[in-house]
Amino acid sequence: MILFDPLGQLAAAAQLAQSHPLPVSQARVQLAQGDPAAALALLEPLRQQLEAKGWQAERLKVLALQAVALQAQGATDQALPLLSEALTLAQPGGAIRLFVDEGPPMAQLVAEAAARGMLPGAIETLLAVFEAERPSRKAGSDQPPAQALIEPLSQRELEVLQLIAQGLSNSEISARLFLALSTVKGHNREIFGKLQVQRRTEAVARARDLGLV
User: Fold this and answer.
1) CA atoms within 13 A on the CB side of 103
2) Backbone phi, then psi, for 144, in 5-degree steps?
3) Residue 33 pLDDT
């Protein structure tokens, strides 16, 4: 019988991060070990290097992780400007998943940003995705959810709705499902009409209430 050993896995991750020049991985290990100060000591010089080189995608990852580390330190006022910078940098490419993958610490920081009225469009989208990914049905249930709608969503519309809930843009949904962008927009109109909503965030919230996502 193989037992799950989270402490052993963390130790292995720490050893791997220390033996290779992977400062982001090292910082994640430091956070997992409850040492955000050590993580920040690694991330700040790395961010400066990435800025100097113009490597925006890597800089975005470091900004998001720095924000989480500052939040873990209780330095929310310092974390929020970094979150805002990261979201502004991410918006052209719609890199929502990067933030969602940071889990509950990022969700807490995003909620604080929402309370302060920061970047309402991006923040609302993130909140909707975090909310949509919370367990909403009993584990182990393989039964498809019932649709309490006058006109149920089609299978394709359900697929599009699931991707909307994951934070994908229309262009990303188009590429994922091999559909024309105009077709995706048409599905959006049908979904919004059937759910009786006007915006993506409302659609995700309504879908979650109905158990569709």
Assistant:
1) 5
2) -65, 145
3) 78
160 and 127 inside one domain:
no
Q: What average pLDDT does the structure give for the chain?
A: 79
pTM: 0.54
Identify which has the larger pLDDT, 188 or 152. 188
Residues sharing a CB contact under 8 Å with residue 30, sequence separation 6 or more, in sequence order: 36, 38, 39, 42
With H, G, I as helix, E, B as strand and everything else as coil, classify residue 177.
helix
What is the distance between the alpha carbons of residues 54 and 165, in angstroms, rounded to a whole number? 31
pLDDT above 90 coverage of the chain, percent: 17
Model confidence over 41-61: pLDDT tens digits? 999 999 999 888 888 888 888
Q: Are residues 94 and 168 in the same domain?
A: no
- What is each CA distance from 85 to 34, 43, 59, in whole angstroms? 25, 15, 10
Rounded to whole angstroms, the Cα distance separating 106 from 16 reads 25
Contact status, residue 152 vs residue 144, Cβ threshold 8 Å: no
Of 68, 100, 132, the residue that ends a domain is 132
Same domain (yes/no): 26, 127: yes
Closest by CA position to 94, among listed 162, 177, 171, 159: 171
CA distance 54 to 14: 29
Number of structural domains (the chain) is 2
Cα 131–Cα 136–Cα 139 angle in degrees, nearest 5: 135
Give the Cα separation of 43 and 41 in Å (integer): 6
Q: How far apart are CA 141 and CA 89, in angstroms?
A: 39
Q: Is the pLDDT of residue 104 over 90?
A: no
